[in-house]
Amino acid sequence: MARDSSILPSPSPEHRRVAAGQFERANQVIAKGDFDYGIRLLLSCCKLDPANLVYRQSLRRTQKLKHKNNLRGHWLAWLTNTPAKARIKKAMVRRDYLAVLDLGERVLTRNPWDVGTQRAMAEAAEVLGLLDLAVWNLEQARHKAPRDNRVNRALARLYERRGNFAQAIALWELVRTANPSDLEAASKAKDLAASDTIARGHYEAAVGGLSGKHLKVPAGQEEVEGPRSSPIAKQAWTAEAEPEKAPLPDDASPAERRAARDAVAIQARIDADPTNPGPYLELAAMYRRAGLLDRARSALFRGLEKTGNDFELASELADLEIEPFRQNLVLTEERLAENPDDELRRIRIRLLKEINTRELDLFRQRADRYPADLSFRFEMGVRLLRAGQIDEAIKELQAARADPRLHWRCQLYLGHSFKSRNNWRLARRNFEDALSSTPANEDQARKELFFQLAQGCAEAGDLPDAINFGNELANLDFSYREIGRLLDEWQTRLEEGRNA
Q1: CA torsion, points 347, 348, 351, 353, in degrees to nearest 10?
Q2: What is residue 159's predicted lDDT score, i.e. its pLDDT?
Q3: Which fold has domain 1-130?
Q4: CATH assignment of 373-499?
Q5: Helix pair angle (115-127, 131-144), 10° resolution
């Protein structure tokens, strides 16, 4: 899960190792139908690593499976949960927000659809800086109460903080519709639509995905749980348990229609062996390529239920949840290219941070799960560097460079890491090592390495070497990052120094 700007310290490597082991064991026992033991293990995982959304998602799915998705939990939950709910209120008064999260999970074990508890957990997570967890808890609450104004208002504010403006507008619109006199809802929807081109471009899709008419379900099935529509997704969620069985809209693209046809064969393989995660992954990948994100998400949810929270399926789902942010980033950069704007730049920065935070946690999970695959540690290192966690980045990149296939890339990012620590000597050494091992077909990387070496030498006062590296770059691409102008400046400074 993304850690945002959490005030919680990161769990120790030992705690992460123990949690990962318990998570694997939990998946094994859940697959055999032992939900109680699996829930106990997952509760322990959440306590060891409170910010980890993967553990909480698995826990919630298992809690719901235990109660056969009956949307009310144990029939005596209203009574047995009373003491724990009282303790949650006391913990909120004491500002013991970790206790709120811990107690909340125990309440949800008896009733995973308790809206009040999910709202309290979201508030606690927000205070702790765990915005991903706060958003997810409120999204879970909406599965039970999609028209609850308190839930929709809180979630809209969090979406707005995260830069997910299209979904924020849709929720503010629901609040305004439920209470036309709500001045905040009316002004928020109007202001966001007027100020953000992303939200403006996807407003109708977002409203369609969250509006009451698409959340209406057949009588007797009022609260069927399932993934809700992303504002980017091309197919609106219709509140069916398996949206991939819903007919495609009339304006579906040829790729979408082809994916729907090809899904029939994969579905037959799933029906023949429902506990095999492979076909679910294949089906989700095919839907994802076609832009049918809701169908991909639904296929993964079904696979998780049938396979006992298979790690690969959970990992793919976590990556899929990042896709709307990536698409919003593409749209933002397109708008910036057309019309540079300070507000769009701020949105771009928020989206980059959000994507990097989510990806960092995803690759950390994969690295813990597959320690022999150093590519995950490399990806972790890159994202740690982007997050400004330089020392941790250096540790991961130095470990990953043991893989010959990753060596030159690790050296490149190690150079950037040491440069960020103002250690030009080590930065130069790593840049030069990267340059000597960069494949011949990596022209862009070679140009950037020459530029970093030239610029770094110039900043360190080593003008002769700066000019040498600059000339190598100019020989490849004279227009690269204004190297021609920089060479003239460095040459002038060198001659002035000699004449002084």
Answers
A1: -110
A2: 87
A3: 1.25.40
A4: 1.25.40.10
A5: 170
